[in-house]
Amino acid sequence: MEQENLYLQEQISFENNHSEIIGSASSLTNVFQLISNVAYSDTSVLIMGETGTGKELIARAIHNASPRKDQLMIKVNCAALPPTLIESELFGHEKGSFTGATERRTGKFELADHSTLFLDEIGEMPIDLQVKLLRAIQEKEIERIGGKTVIKTNVRIIAATNRYLQKEVEEGRFRADLYYRLNVFPVVLPALRERKEDMKQLITHFIQKLSNRLGKKITGVSPAVMLELSTYDWPGNIRELENVIERSILMAKGPIIEEVFLIRSSKKMTMQQEGAIDKSLEQMEREHIIAILQQCKGKIRGEDGAAAILNIPPTTLHSKMKKLGITKTHA
């Protein structure tokens, strides 16, 4: 109960509602459609996207739209914990099971029983622990470290990564069986540079939110600043934009932000580097379409077809499939 209360306090301090997802770009609308399609099921979801694109917000939106919404969504950041502690964090341990285990610890799987477990930065999980995670997901049961009792669990898994996991599998850094178990329903988040039409709305939102918190009366940005923000590449995405707005509010001398402080790269990407990024994004789109086709058993048209799930016309999907070399045999 004490641990659950701590999680409750943590979540109260976080704004857990759909209103935090700002924007109306077509790429983001597609994500909203995917959330609606998957939220009410217990299907595992893999959220992919660059750092700072709001993967945790999407995970919370899925949880809050699901039948499990009355329970706390439990989060584990796989990159924030030493490899020696992740197993105890996930599955718990018994008193005396190892040096320093002075009392029994309840793991996140137990805390997330009948709720959602969000595994952030799943690509950072040590490969030897991936086997135990796979078993816990498949068998719906766990054992605490040092324990002899099998504990049944009913947990919905949502994982997130900024890595290209299929490449990690090919290079032996991530288990293929776990990847396919997690990648039942992939959701790819657009980078901020791909949804520039949302920039004005995002800037307005962050100015209102941060001005209140910082105790300053900021009403907007100058046209020159708006142009500068709109033409910047935003490698840190939404998180970077929020940080830039916060600093600019603190430095502003009047109600209008006249200057922003951006960290620009000292060298431009080579054509080879740009091509590698384009190829990676293309591969992610190809993988996403194939996964949806498999889910629909190759059906493209109709309410339960792949085009409807992707929220694009069937003709557009056919064009994308042709461009990406996808045939119905992939489904």
Element-by-element helix/strand order: HHEHEHEEHEHEEEHHEHEHHEHHH
Alpha-carbon Rg, integer: 22 Å
Tell me which oligomeric state these chains represent. Answer: single chain
Separate helix tally:
14
Percent helix, as a range, is 40-55%
CATH class type of the largest domain: Alpha Beta
Write the layout of secondary structure elements.
Elements (H helix, E strand, L loop, with lengths): L1 H11 L13 H13 L6 E4 L6 H10 L9 E4 L5 H9 E2 L11 E2 L1 H4 L3 E6 L6 H13 L1 E2 L8 E2 L2 E7 L3 H6 L5 H7 L2 E4 L10 H16 L5 E2 L1 H9 L5 H15 L4 E2 L13 H25 L10 H5 L3 H11 L7
Parallel strand pairs: 1-8, 1-9, 2-5, 5-8, 10-11
Antiparallel strand pairs: 3-4, 6-7
Helix pairs in contact: 9-11
Describe the fold and architecture.
The protein has 331 residues and is of the alpha/beta class. It folds into three domains: 2-190, P-loop containing nucleotide triphosphate hydrolases (Rossmann fold), CATH 3.40.50.300; 193-257, Helicase, Ruva Protein, domain 3 (Orthogonal Bundle), CATH 1.10.8.60; 271-330, Arc Repressor Mutant, subunit A, CATH 1.10.10. Helix content is 47%, strand content 11%. The chain contains 14 helices and eleven strands. It has helices at residues 2-12, 26-38, 55-64, 83-91, 108-111, 127-139, 165-170, 176-182, 199-214, 223-231, 237-251, 271-295, 306-310, 314-324; strands at 45-48, 74-77, 92-93, 105-106, 115-120, 141-142, 151-152, 155-161, 185-188, 220-221, 256-257. The strands form four sheets. The protein has a five-stranded parallel sheet with strand order 2-5-8-1-9. A hairpin with an 8-residue loop joins strand 6 and strand 7. The chain starts with a helix and ends in a 7-residue tail after the last helix.
